[in-house]
Amino acid sequence: MTDNVLNVVLGLVASAISAGLGWLAQALRRRRRVEQVREFFGLPAGGECLVVVPRSIGEGSDAGTVTRRDAYALMALAGLVESCGARAEIVAHDSANRGIGARTEFCIGGPVSNERTAAHLAWGLPGALVTSGADPGSNVIVVGDRDFTADQEQVHALLARIATPEGGRPVFLVAGQTGTANQAGVRYLVAHHRELARAHGRNGTFAVVLRVVKPKAYGPDLVEVAADVTAEAVLRPGARSGAA
């Protein structure tokens, strides 16, 4: 074998090794990212989660149906769960009479349309109050001394991750003031989970209020963080004044 041929062979071998190492490094990075997502959501490969859907609100609504916006939110969650290699069980809010921590839970809708949300708020985020009604100004999220009222220009969603005892699987809440707010909250969680994990950690409790801007014009697409209300949400009413 001449020197020229040997150099070509060595060059090809070096290129193959370099390409293989590059592919391996990318594969390891992808796997690490997936594992981080699984850790944040408590969704190991082959695991299961519970998705609790609200009842449809409105005159003539069937109690066994969900709104179109909530159906879109379910689709977004289904993609997330599948990407983690897990499986989801979808149940109605009044049929989810089971404990917490054994499986990750995604709970969609405010306490008026979802009894499970009401229970989670009372237990894990007692400082947060979510109300809704037909009268102007009745759709309000109140946390501490701040309130976020729905109007023609904006609606809100309380997005939260509640850590469960003894390192169990987390509970995720998306309590929107409308179906559009529910969809926006789920989409934000799916799209920005890495930012949320960096800001709040992968294992703790957090609560943020999202603002959906001009929902009649833009639907669930224009969303911003209105406030981080974690500190206020975990306090029981009266605890702040009592401590003072």
Overall description:
There is one protein chain. The protein is α/β, with parallel strands linked by helices. It has one domain (42-243). The protein has 8 helices and 10 strands. It has a 7-stranded mixed beta sheet, with helices on both faces. A 3-stranded antiparallel beta sheet has the order 4-5-6, with no helix packed on it. The model has no long low-confidence stretch (mean pLDDT 83).
Number of spatially distinct domains: 1
| Helicity level | 40-55%
Distance between the termini: 86 Å
Shape: elongated
Please specify the SSE layout and strand pairing.
Layout: H1 3-41, E1 48-53, H2 68-83, E2 87-92, E3 104-108, H3 115-124, E4 128-131, E5 140-143, E6 146-149, E7 154-162, E8 171-176, H4 179-191, H5 193-200, E9 206-213, H6 215-218, E10 223-228, H7 230-233, H8 239-243
Helix pairs in contact: 2-4
